User: Fold these one by one.
Assistant:
Number 1:
Amino acid sequence: MKRRELVVAQLLDAAPDLISLQEVYRPIGQAAWLKNQINGRLGTTAAGRPYQIVQKRRHHYWKGYFDGLAILSRLPILSHDAISLGYQGRVALRANIELPTRETLDFVAVHLHHRARDREARVEQVMRLTGWLNEQNPVPLRIIAGDFNEVPQGAAVQQMKQGYRSTFEELWGHEPAATFPTALAEREDDWAGCLDYIFISPAVEKVLKVQIFCKKPAADDPNLYPSDHVGLLVTLETG
């Protein structure tokens, strides 16, 4: 209960135009609840545009009941589709967004296979994802955001960088030291690393700002964070 209030508060503070969400819990309508809470509170400010939502569950006979991906957008959503990435029903969700310039942009939410030893699986997923984006209704402007479950030196991330730029690396010259875990995650070891990225296509003109966000614990509990991962918040110039 307290954790979801932290998520709402910190997203509300940032109020980005586009939000990529992974592991949304479907039985309680978590993504829709989040959208409604943010919209309700934005309605009392001068912020204006409400969020729309698109979602996609996992392609798995029982995991798909429990979780999936979601995209929240304050910009018009013209269409959306998804692709199966295999490995316990992983998917990528794409929303085609209309920008204020009337150009369109593909915004993609993704969550790759999680087992550290299965690096070849993530490379396969990246190749399937990028091939799909290049072949099915391609547009020049693309953002791919999510949990890649791979460190910066990993083959899947290096494969992504063959055709896309990492926003954090472009601005800072390196990836974040770590995006996982926060104190919310219970681990038997002290491992920490960067697993989360926002990639952009070459046509996106400039990265103006990148920062870590959703990183504040509860005021009365230093171990209570919005998530077991921190997020990335990016400001872009599209052209």
Number 2:
Amino acid sequence: MRRREQIDRIVRAALDAVEPGAAVTRALELDDDRLSAAGETYDLSRFDRVAVLGAGKPCAPMVQAIVDLLGSRVDQGLVLVKHGHGEDEGPIGPVEIVGAGHPVPDAAGVDATSRLAVTAESLGEDDLLIAPIGGGASSLLCLPAEGLTLDDLGRTTDTLLGSGADIVALNCMRKHLSAIKGGQLARLAAPAQVLGLMLSDVVGDPLDAIGSGPTAPDPTTFADAWSVVDRHGLEGRLPASVIERLRRGAAGEIADTPGPGDALFDRVANTVVAGNRHAARAAVEAARELGFQSQAVTTTLTGEAREVGARVAGMIRARVEAEGELARPVCLVLGGETTVTLKGDGTGGRNQELALAAAIELDGQQRMAVVTVATDGQDGPTDAAGAIATGDTISRARGLGLDPRALLDANDSYRFFDALGDLLRTGPTRTNVADLTLAFVF
């Protein structure tokens, strides 16, 4: 089997393992009217209403799985997805599917979230809210806090994405500029019972960070949000209204998000139905079936993409140099999510940038490759999921007149790999469990 076929098979196995509908189906069990999930059992016959309210790029298939299982027991619902991720297919049973903006919130998202909040607030003690939450929910579930506008949130998101802030810092900020994130959806729905079904795109699967934790206790505070401003030097770069809210919140003048120990969470259960570790495990198993020695090195990979790429390439170079000709085929799997600090005006994403840095380190090493993939199928603002870097990538690029280091400095990794035909394109996967990096010795 050719190397590209092996790569494609391993990537496909990883993506299939975190298909959202199948993940939800595995997490739920229905026996007559008794629904079991997250260590809880719900007698559906005792609820006046069952509502499905949530958001995320992978939520359409999640909703389909819920409706397929519960049928007419679902009474109403509204779920936000990224534009083009299923809203054009119409409602799923009684659940409306609405397209909204990602990664920058838009007016459609504000309108739909406002309607979702009204429905949540209408729920009572004898109602059940099932909340599917997936990657992208932080942008899609958009309800600006009092005194803020959609433009304020959009400018803040753009600034944070270009500052090198990681997803945890980004979500902390979002929660404290929102009227629905950081446990506030659960607060709106109280005293209804709440079952959160999370498809995690966050390293380590912390419930409060997945989709900015709309149904989870928020361990962060306004003081934490202000520390993000300090750490990344954002005070003069964010809208004045945002700075004012964060200052007032840190001073205790605005009520904080509901945190651990808040009594409202006594009626809330959350569970991660799939995450990066599931995709990594499936990639390892597929690689072993193809004859590779394979292991998952980590599912908490973070850091600046170009630095991580060089380290990953150096790791497999060191392995081959230690074992020499005795080195056997290897596939090391690393999961997580890196970041990019923008310095140039090129096009790319964190996975393509990681791959370009790895290619520079692998130059001339013919038995090695580093493959990167965003599990949602979209790496940054591009149509690629990632890229394939091999030992001959740099020599081929120079033959086309490309300067790898100049393009890396310009954050222009998309143009680099597109010219070589080495972009990895999966198309939209309707899942999102962060990223995978595969390091090969063939």
Number 3:
Amino acid sequence: MAQAVTVAAERTSFSHVLNEGRAGFRIAGELETVNVRGDSGVVRVRMELQAPDRGSGLSTRLSIALGQTAVLGGQPGGGEGALILAVRPELTVR
């Protein structure tokens, strides 16, 4: 299990390597669009979660409301364990 937080602007890519050196994971993606209206909004993001040592991963493109959590998951080809990714976009004003 691992956790990562990233800050990304619209139309930028991001990548994290977690637990490097043991059962590692790579999270990557691109924040495609951000649409904000008043207090709410939606982001469109492309996400990838890879477990190279297992030879498995998941990839998707989704729209998520700001402040809401999307949970993605799948079982690797070998049948042991599962890959689960929770994504929660939040707007940060700089």
